[in-house]
Amino acid sequence: MRHLIDPADFTLDETLRLMDLADRIHDDPSAYKDVAYRKRLATLFYEPSTRTRLSFEAAMLNLGGQVIGFPDARVSSASKGETVADTIRIISCYADIAAMRHPKEGAPLRAARYSRIPVINAGDGGHSHPTQTLLDMMTIRRRKGRLDNLTIGFCGDLKFGRTVHSLIKSLSRLPGMRFVLISPEELRVPDYIISEILAPNGIDYVETRNLEESLPELDILYMTRVQQERFFNEEDYIRLKNSYILTKDKLALAPADMAVLHPLPRVNEITLDVDDDPRAAYFEQAQNGVYMRMALIMTLLGLADPKTGEVAFDVNG
Amino acid sequence: MLTVDEILNGVVIDHITAGTGLGLYHMMELEKLHDASVALLQNVRSQKSGKKDIIKIEGDVSKLNFDILGYLDPKITITVIENGHIVNKIRPKQPQRLVNVIKCTNPRCVTSIEEGCDHIFTLTPSGRYRCVYCEQEFRVKP
């Protein structure tokens, strides 16, 4: 049995196989409508996250499976003080696979250690959100046709943005990657991203404050939201927030085949007039997320792809 | 330069990262050593690192846990002195994994709420320890 707690839980080869399956589902979703018949997904959401929960539920329903669970800790036994370890042992009796969102970092790992069913981390605090990473990678590959030799710009809050950290870690396993880290001084990537991931692997990166100057060289622009609560000074927040708004005018500086990604929700960091630009890929990400989660559920349950007759990779070894 | 008398019987904990000596003092619970003389020297000039802290303990140190020094600060050296002579110089080893030895202090970590949850840290390639749950790096507080 395998779990997905951190993006690095899967080897690069396994990740690529999973993406291949998600691509096949993308191209012919109806072929997969009964793959998980009579299988049950438990969505254990200790904090509300409507889009992620609905994406998991849609994925399971698309596979012909069923869904049980809770959308908020207030309606779970956690409100009575039950531990994560106990909850997952009980849920293991009711479902075949679980997706857990929890405000405490490491809670899904704690659950996985006591679980008899595969556990998927659907986001644990500011720590990790591996299915977001997988769908980001899927979107990049579908847009660019490859996952190597790309220049990827990350823009906005690179300090607290967990999606950025996970994606940098995962993409660092691929050859020829170059990262352009665009952020205010106050929201630079944490030192460990550089000292433990980029530098030891000899990965080319540059840190800059300027979005406009960076745009012409990017294959991918990954936008994030600058969060007000991270600042002590309202003036600094407003000054910095407004320097990282992607507008149609700024986008004119970017290559015609660049893709703009964003984990969503956005506030004002991408103006609405960018949505109609063919480079806007953020709504595609949400769609790809359903296919990626379908591929993940199938694989962790050991269900074969009806198109190939094979499981994406072995989960029992 | 400030000098502290040489030790006849005891230990010198040297090469402590400057500014963390007091935190280390508390983690080793040296305040409970009622029968030993303890000197904490802060920001001592060092050829290697510019500045360092040193702890000198004169007296019975048999009840002290020196093992923890390896994961608190891997640069540390421990010199054991008996009858005015150096009898042993130890550089503590860093175990790959620590279970319930140090505690994760991240308030957002599952260990902060989950009853019966072990505090587990693993050694990273850079010689630091990270909580397996939240991946927060363990640091000795100054």
UniProtKB/TrEMBL annotation, chain B:
Transmembrane segments: none annotated. Residues 2-91 form the Aspartate carbamoyltransferase regulatory subunit N-terminal domain. One of its GO terms (molecular function) is metal ion binding. It holds the Pfam family PyrI. It is an enzyme of class 2 (transferase). One of its GO terms (biological process) is 'de novo' pyrimidine nucleobase biosynthetic process. InterPro entries: Asp_carbamoyltransf_reg_N, Asp_carbamoylTrfase_reg, Asp_carbamoyltrfase_reg_C, Asp_carbatrfase_reg_C_sf, Asp_carbatrfase_reg_N_sf. Its EC number is 2.1.3.2. Residues 98-139 form the Aspartate carbamoyltransferase regulatory subunit C-terminal domain. SUPFAM superfamilies: Aspartate carbamoyltransferase, Regulatory-chain, C-terminal domain, Aspartate carbamoyltransferase, Regulatory-chain, N-terminal domain. Keywords: Metal-binding, Pyrimidine biosynthesis, Transferase, Zinc. GO terms for cellular component: aspartate carbamoyltransferase complex. This is Aspartate carbamoyltransferase regulatory chain, allosteric domain protein.
